[in-house]
Amino acid sequence: MFSVPALRNAAAMSVRRTTTVSSMKVATAIPAMRRRCYATENGKDTAKEGEEAATGNATEAPKAELTEDVKKMLAEKDKQISELKDAYLRCLADQENVRERSRKEIETTKEYAIQKFAKDLLDTVDILNMALTAVPSELREKSSSLQSELAKDAEKIVDQLTNLYTGVSMTESELIKALKRHGVERENPEGEAFDPNRHQALFQAPMPDKEAGTIFAVQKMGYTLKGRVLRPAQVGVVSDPQ
Fold it and tell me: pTM for the whole thing?
């Protein structure tokens, strides 16, 4: 049988062994826990860095793509600007050419504005020349010998004067036709009522058999250009009886 002191000593030794073993287990477990925690935190940090890197790459990729799109867009805009500038310069050149052509056409039109009118008068000039040629050269000037010749050959002189009148009459008729082709018409207002917008009164005289304000004499014919008064007729007007 064991004594009481021996049992106490055995129990104390057992407690010390248990405490020592527990302390050793705890001391051994702490570094492992530290390593595990460090590995876990390091893993989290590494994963976080990986996620950030992936996110950064994903963010940077659209930026690079957007930059390329912007470059393409700018290049396209530069091309359009160049084309518009070229078209603008061409338009300016065309306008300058049009102005120059218009200026030359205006100058040419001014210089040759009466070309058609002058051409129509050529026939009139020819007829007038024929009328003048019909008068013999010896009858174009007065002389003492001319009077004796006129007395001898009066019939011949009458024929020559008739030809002269016919030629001048044809000249007048042809000239009136030429003027009419260009819109110029002659007016003879004799017997019409006086119109201050179309007639110019040179004198007045009482006429018992005519109404007052009526034109009874025409000194010069009036002319109109396409309905507009070119020259008013110079006339004599019947005055009111006193």
Answer: 0.48
